[in-house]
Amino acid sequence: MATSASNLPAQTPRLSPRIGGLTTFYNQFIPLLTIGDGWSQKFVLQNVDGSAPALGFIKFYDQTGAPLAVNIKGLGLTTAVPISIVAGNSMVVETVLSSAPLQIGWASVALSSGGTGDLFGQTLYRKQYPGLPDFMCSLPFGAEGFEKTTTYFDNTNGNITGMGILAAQSCDSSPYACKSSVPLQVTVRDISGTIISQKTISQMPGSLRWMNLATDFPETAGRVGTFEVAVVNAYSVTLNSVSIQFAGNGAFTMVAPFES
Question: pTM here?
């Protein structure tokens, strides 16, 4: 005999976890800033809060953590861009395209106590090569509080992996926390999970370490695997990371890290 839907036993609804790659923390990080050499960059911020405004600043830093003056469309050279976004609105900040020598750094987004609306953010990278189409990719803003970051790399068939490790700390507001380097443990694994190498490096809080992975860690040359960085002493610093996979023709994409 056929059974109608109304005769089926009641079932408990299945609950699925809600996940996402964006954060609305009051303090967020952009682990890579690219200026010059045909690069430009956009910062897209959206206040998804139902009522509260988002007020604060985007601040720019060089690789050492010192304030960095960046040429911003409509503002000129500045080390900080004010954020003022009412609930439900968005804001776009864009750097001025430059052919000057490449300079890299990082940026932070900090909201003030007077306007802590739920702020989502992402950054878009654009690279212009003469005679070629523009290459672009994007990355969500990073959260604070990570003590380990792991990224997939592929240094085979002419691919080049650029890797950036940010010891996330705004030293202009907490200079006492940036007086000495902190140890970080690096573990390189092949794609099967076998450890290829393991060593401890030192990095100053507030600084960005940028690497051509195959050059700075030669054991990754010609390999596919994962590159893991972990804080040795708990709470000494928080980590953010960024990885760019470059193809032989100059095209590139962001590889999102696993962070915990």
Answer: 0.86
